[in-house]
Amino acid sequence: MEKTLREFINYLAVERGLSNNTLEAYNRDLQAFCQYLQRFGVVKIEEVTRNSIVGYLRELQKKGRATATLSRNMASIRSFYNFLFQERRVMENPAADLSSPKIEKKLPRVLTTAEVDLLLEQPDLQQVGGLRDKAMLEVIYATGVRVSELISLNTLDINLEAGFLRCTGKGSKERIIPLGSVAVHHLNTYLKAGRPKLVRERSEPALFLNLQGRRLTRQGFWKILKKYARQAGITKEITPHTIRHSFATHLLENGADLRSVQEMLGHADISTTQIYTQVTQRRLRDIYNKTHPRA
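-> structure tokens emitted (295 positions)
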């Protein structure tokens, strides 16, 4: 079973081009499922039945796992057995008629435009690190890229003259996203006055560097964001994805069409983007209730 699992993860990486984070999630879910099966003496993939899978999901439920966790595990197991069935490793697919539990979609947490302005004002532009941080924050809010996409940017991915960046998202899909004039200005300043002082080796391709001259990590960006949120006095819980959510919501609030926002975010399905319309509707209702004399 372990050997088959490795082959499946390799298939996801090579054939479907999934990101390392997604591959790790699949591997983690399926390793836990295999350990559950081994406790009951099930060691061969063809011995797994529908009841085996249902029993595992019930065990997760008893442990108090969230609906989203159950749904993700179900999706991992279903994908695994779809692969096995297509490869004719099993004659029957025990996961074929199992449906994932319905997840109640929570509306994403967003910042107001005033909070975003306050956050973006925090970096000290007299410091090298501040020039970098200002450019990063302006880029992530101007484009809505994921933090993994932001830190993966190379200098060649930026075209300041044309005002766009190129990034590679989930499934190794490449997209081109416009950069606003403010982001272009601060990127230009960083590239001229900040990055040259951070870079140690001329061959380094990364756009955003840490103080050791290497590519900035997700954890590094997270710490930077948390620091500036505290400085700005923002009490909401804030993550890099909060900026992405705010980017999409603010675009829609100001008249952008849903398809354009979908393309910029890199969503494969427009239903994923549609949740932001619910955020804008909720905010309009709140404004109405606060301001209309007969609300």
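The radius of gyration is 23 Å.
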